[in-house]
Amino acid sequence: MEEKIYDPGECYHYQLTLDKLLLTPKYYAPDQEIVYRDLSRHTYRTLLERIHREASGLENLGIKRGDTVCIFDYDSPRYLETYFAVPMMGAVMHMMNWRSSPEQILYMMNHAQDDAVLIHEDFLPVLEEIWDQLSTVKKVVLLSDSGLTPDTGIPIDSEYEAMLAGASSDYRFPELDEDSRASLFYTTGTTGLPKGVHFTHKQLMLHIMSAAIMTGSFHSIGRFHSNDVYMPITPMFHVHAWCFPYVATLLGVKQVYPGKYEPTKLLQLIRDEHVTFSHCVPTVLLMILSHPMAGEIDLGNWKAIIGGSMFPKGLAKQALDRGVQVFDGYGMSETCPLLCLANLKPHMMDWDNDQKSEILTKTGLPVPLADLRIVDKNGDFLPHDGKTAGELVARTPWATKSYWNEPEMTKELWRDGWLHTKDIAVIDNEGYVKVTDRLKDVIKTGGEWISSLDLENCASQHEAVSEAAAVGIPDEKWGERPVIMATLKEGFKGKVSADELKLFMKKFVDDGVIPKYGLPDRFELVDAIPKTSVGKFNKIEIRRIVAAA
After folding, report:
1. Residues in contact with 291: Cβ distance below 8 Å, sequence separation at least 6, in sequence order
2. Which of 180, 199, 477, 483 could form a disulfide with 203 if both were Cys (CB 3.0 to 4.6 A apart)?
């Protein structure tokens, strides 16, 4: 019998698209729960049906392949459904940072050319303020927790649940090319216009797989497994909540969505739903650990990745002493975001908490498929000796290929074929990356560089310090001098002085942790440190306040 020779052209070209993630929980965990505060409980069976209904409902409203759908919402199952439904129908999901100013939101929506908006009732006043200036939006879908009809001048085309009720549960999703654009969001700083960052299905899928391997396969702390209970405490508009809702769905874990972040509600959900895995910025971790209710709850089963800004060693030690497994995560909006996680290596697992916190607050080890280097100002590679500092550059298969419609900014981002992070870092001989500062935040005094992150980390270790931000302010003699703005924990306010904190910092000079010229001249004790819309220290505003004091 003659053997048939197959033409390679007959093979099915399997595309890495987001719909493939749903194949696993469909069989492994169809009855697992997806919880929204105390408002709803669904299963993965229901999730799959609702994803179909959302796509069908949007199509009924006229949304088609290639259109852009903007979403304003708290962390919710609706957001999770949109993570899949919109990209899977061939449209682009635009995740809106609703903490941005109305002017920034207007710019982002027009620049993205949004065709439709899914918007929570709480954010209607912002949309009302800019409605007459939006140039492309045709349809508005209301996301409501109250079930009430809001009093608004915005023409509402449908309420979300009503849209789903009238749509098909058997929507036929198209077979998409894996290089189709899936998501778009804007990185907003303290200066300049927001920049659009976009990702394809394939980029998201590769990032999700890398995150799943890094958090689930290595022998370390904080592992994310199928028997965990997941609750994001990073806004879902912020770089896909670090892609962990996708990882959680792939694993079929129980998912808990907290809606609006309220410390008491977060702690109640951790307690009542037995949450074991989260991710958040240091400010949120501090808020949870400092809440009076935290002392009444066993947090010993909780694991959390901490990212978004420098993870102070003092805060890490506080969490570890409470039994919380915490470790640093690092990335950028432009990298989807994950580049590093501060995994402990096996020989470190039995260290005491003080030793562990040294590793867990590093920027971390590169995740699978991430190639990280440090370069000098000429773009030449520098040694990984733990001492030589340079700009951190990266290559990954999921890094954004461009800023949306910004070719000149893209050239600067991808100079010499490497994505430039604008972070100063060292890499040691074990592979651990440690970001020592942002290029724009490094303090230069008397011709020498001082890491603002090192100063913040040292200050955070004082028992009275809640948060600390270090900046450089102009000085006629030295060029710049470091100043620290700090908040104190309850019980220490009015009892600890700036002079005491300065004396405490001197021990890090004596121990050689920071140089003598790095000792801050001033400590400014305040009730709150200014932050950006994503919870990072707003150092431009801090410099302005400190310089005017």
Report:
1. 263, 264, 267
2. 199
Domain boundaries, the chain: 41-194, 443-548
**Overall fold of domain 443-548:** GMP Synthetase; Chain A, domain 3 (3.30.300)
Pairing between β-strand 303-306 and β-strand 325-331 as defined by DSSP bridges: parallel
Catalytic sites, residue numbers: 187, 334, 444, 449
> Residue 315 corresponds to which amino acid?
L
Q: How high is the pLDDT of residue 1?
A: 45
Contact by Cβ (8 Å): 95, 118: no
The set of residues, in sequence order, having a beta carbon less than 8 Å from that of 207 and lying 6+ positions away, is: 199, 243, 336, 338, 396, 398
Does domain 41-194 match CATH 3.90.1170.20?
A: no
Predicted confidence at residue 9, as pLDDT, reads 63
- Interhelix angle 282-290/263-272, rounded to 10 degrees, is 80
Q: Please classify residue 146 by burial: count the beta carbons closer than 10 Å to its beta carbon, then call 0-12 exposed, 13-18 middle and 19+ buried.
A: exposed
* Confidence at residue 347, expressed as pLDDT on a 0 to 100 scale: 96
* DSSP labels, 230-290: E---S-TTSGGGGGHHHHHHHHT-EEEE-BS--HHHHHHHHHHTT--EEEE-HHHHHHHHH
The model's pTM: 0.86
